[in-house]
């Protein structure tokens, strides 16, 4: 399972604005291009581990500052799905 965790974390840590917009659309998460850009910039190279609860919580708090609490809540649901 560790390999899947590494793949998912790598994808999150290297996600682009366009990829984030594509996933948001696919999972029905409302996000603007500017929010996606800001979130992607935050995630890029941050070495985030969404499988670590406290790390994911920190990321969600930062995303809430960037895109608002509702978007952060929806992204957290998506992250939780990835970790199952």
Describe this structure in words.
- The chain has one domain.
- Helices cover 75% and strands 0% of the residues.
- The chain contains five helices and no strands.
- The protein has helices spanning 2-13, 17-26, 33-43, 53-67, 69-83.
- Helix 2 (17-26) crosses helix 3 and helix 4 (53-67) runs antiparallel to helix 5.
- The relative contact order is 0.16.
List the helices and strands and how they pair.
Blueprint: H1 2-13, H2 17-26, H3 33-43, H4 53-67, H5 69-83
The figure for the number of domains is 1
Question: Uncertain regions: pLDDT < 50 for 5+ in a row?
Answer: none
* Number of helices in the DSSP assignment: 5
Please give the alpha-carbon distance between the first and last residues.
11 Å
**pLDDT averaged over residues:** 89
Helix percentage range:
over 70%
Q: Count every beta strand, where a strand is a DSSP E run of 2 or more residues.
A: 0
- How many strands, what sense, and barrel or not for the largest sheet? none
Outline, from the CA principal axes? globular
- SSE order, as H and E? HHHHH
User: What radius of gyration results from the CA coordinates?
Assistant: 12 Å
**Strand content of the residues, in percent?**
under 5%
Q: Structural class, from secondary structure content?
A: mainly alpha
